[in-house]
Amino acid sequence: MNWGVWGAKMTTQQIAQTIEASLEAGVYAFDHADIYGGYTTEQDFGDGFAASGVSREQVVFVSKCGIRYPSEGATHSVKHYDYSAEYIENALEKSLRKLQTDYIDVFLLHRPSPLLDPRVAVPVLEKLRGQGKIKEWGVSNFTPSQLALIGTEGTPHWNQIECSLTHTTPMLDGTLDFHQSHSIGTMAWSPLGGFFKEPGAVQDRLEPVIHRMLEKYSCTVECLLLAWLFRHPAGIIPVVGTTRVDRIQAMAKAHKIELETEDWFALTEASWGHKVP
Ligand SMILES: NC(=O)c1ccc[n+]([C@@H]2O[C@H](COP(=O)([O-])OP(=O)(O)OC[C@H]3O[C@@H](n4cnc5c(N)ncnc54)[C@H](OP(=O)(O)O)[C@@H]3O)[C@@H](O)[C@H]2O)c1
């Protein structure tokens, strides 16, 4: 989302180099959505990938479909969600073409929609899986009840949700419990949360607690924020949005940090602004 025109506007060469450097650091999965960059970033990434020395088998591509919004070349005027069979199939074909690949490893329905009918969406996803065009399918931003509803037709492999030290809701509203009890994998978007993006009271409370721990764990702030997520038993996979190779290299080691229980709660308490009951 951040590598293309919505963010760093990387050149083809820079994308190729960043993919190669990610692989060297042990990061091999890349998150996409058709809409990123106003439907342009998958193509930019695809060009960069083709220019890299990395083979398709070495990497995992995640992509998403379903959000339609007015942009260049689009005929509609109202932002909306579309989970018709025809739209899902067409969106996948476009993503495959832009990413220059025969298959997508994980294909997600980007946002829940009141008009999403699991009896329509799940069979088409299963058909695409049967054809080998996707390896696994999942959803994104789904609540437990929405997961239960789509689960009447088939269990998603993944739910990609917003989750971080500054956005702990999924740990409290039953979302992660549902993932764990139904073997649904968790990907966390914006895993660094508001720490760098939203200066304010939460950041002010977290700052001294985090800085006290940096020496103890010999890591960067980003790594500590990820270590907090890794400590949760749901096996959360952070979808990191950095555009910098040095941060990718550092964060690739964050899973090795074993945050002590008391430190986990110290960070949580600082985020919430109160002790646990
Ligand atoms: N499923 C969904 O609905 C959904 C929604 C939103 C996003 N996503 C996915 O999640 C990914 C990550 O989202 P995100 O970018 O919000 O996540 P993030 O990883 O929490 O934040 C990344 C941002 O933090 C900055 N950052 C990292 N370390 C920093 C530091 N030490 N100081 C200052 N800034 C720092 C990065 O800047 P640098 O580039 O300079 O490191 C980047 O702008 C997206 O790329 C997208 O693939 C999915």
List the helices and strands and how they pair.
Blueprint: H1 12-25, E1 29-31, H2 36-39, H3 41-51, E2 60-65, E3 67-68, E4 80-81, H4 85-99, E5 104-109, H5 118-130, E6 134-140, H6 144-150, E7 158-162, H7 169-172, H8 175-181, E8 185-189, H9 201-217, H10 221-230, E9 237-239, H11 245-251, H12 261-272
Parallel strand pairs: 1-2, 2-5, 5-6, 6-7, 7-8, 8-9
Antiparallel strand pairs: 3-4
Helix pairs in contact: 1-3, 1-11, 3-4, 9-12
This protein binds NADP nicotinamide-adenine-dinucleotide phosphate.
Notes on the protein architecture:
It is a single chain. This protein has 277 residues and is α/β, with parallel strands linked by helices. It has 2 domains: 1-156, TIM Barrel; 188-277, no CATH class. The chain contains 12 helices and 9 strands. It has helices at 12-25, 36-39, 41-51, 85-99, 118-130, 144-150, 169-172, 175-181, 201-217, 221-230, 245-251, 261-272, and strands spanning 29-31, 60-65, 67-68, 80-81, 104-109, 134-140, 158-162, 185-189, 237-239. The strands form 2 sheets. It has a 7-stranded parallel sheet, covered by helices on one side. A two-stranded antiparallel ribbon has the order 3-4. The longest helix has 17 residues, at 201-217. The relative contact order is 0.11. The model has no long low-confidence stretch (mean pLDDT 97). NADP nicotinamide-adenine-dinucleotide phosphate (NAP) binds next to helix 10.
Write the CATH fold name of the largest domain. Answer: TIM Barrel
**Radius of gyration (Å):** 19 Å
* Structural class based on helices, strands and sheet pairing: alpha/beta
Structurally, the number of domains stands at 2
Count of individual beta strands: 9
How does the overall form come out from the CA principal axes?
Answer: globular
What would CATH call the class of the largest domain?
Answer: Alpha Beta
The SSE string, one letter per element, is HEHHEEEHEHEHEHHEHHEHH
How would you name the oligomeric state of the polypeptide chains in this document? single chain
Bound molecules: NADP nicotinamide-adenine-dinucleotide phosphate
